[in-house]
UniProtKB/TrEMBL annotation:
Annotated organism of origin: Streptomyces noboritoensis
Disordered, as annotated region: 85-133
Domain of life: Bacteria
InterPro entries: DUF6009
Protein name as catalogued: DUF6009 family protein
């Protein structure tokens, strides 16, 4: 889950690689996967599709016990909003979902009004507060 990813776990990221245009995605799911390399495209073994992944710099250390690196992978499932706009996530978003426009190497990103699928609350509108869209 996004909320469980800590800054130190992604501090060695140098680049995020997107496999498709993310401008049409309100959110992507992110996870830390154990991968055999620090830079190549990872294999993908989930339902849905992988839309991106992180590359690690040369100072990133592999796990001494497994020889693998923990890297972020970004993905969507078949029932996510991009495929089923009126489905389960017409409003709200999964716990591990974040707005891809808030992502950067070493930054876990955040949820936004766009990723949550809803308009700003009336209190936010009255106060003139907007979240990134």
């Amino acid at each position: 889950m996004s909320s469980l990813i800590t800054d130190d776990e992604i501090s060695h990221e140098t680049e995020l690689v997107w496999l498709e245009d993310i401008s049409g995605l309100d959110y992507v799911r992110q996870s830390l996967d154990r991968l055999p390399t620090r830079r190549s495209k990872p294999a993908y073994h989930r339902d849905g599709r992988m839309v991106g992944y992180a590359l690690l710099g040369p100072k990133a250390k592999a796990s001494p016990s497994s020889g693998t690196w923990r890297r972020r992978v970004f993905w969507v499932l078949p029932h996510d909003r991009d495929s089923e706009p009126d489905g389960l996530y017409a409003t709200g978003a999964p716990a591990e979902a974040i707005d891809p426009r808030t992502l950067a190497p070493g930054s876990k990103g955040r949820k936004t009004e766009r990723s949550e699928g809803g308009p700003p609350s009336s209190a936010m509108r009255e106060l003139g507060i907007t979240l990134p869209l």
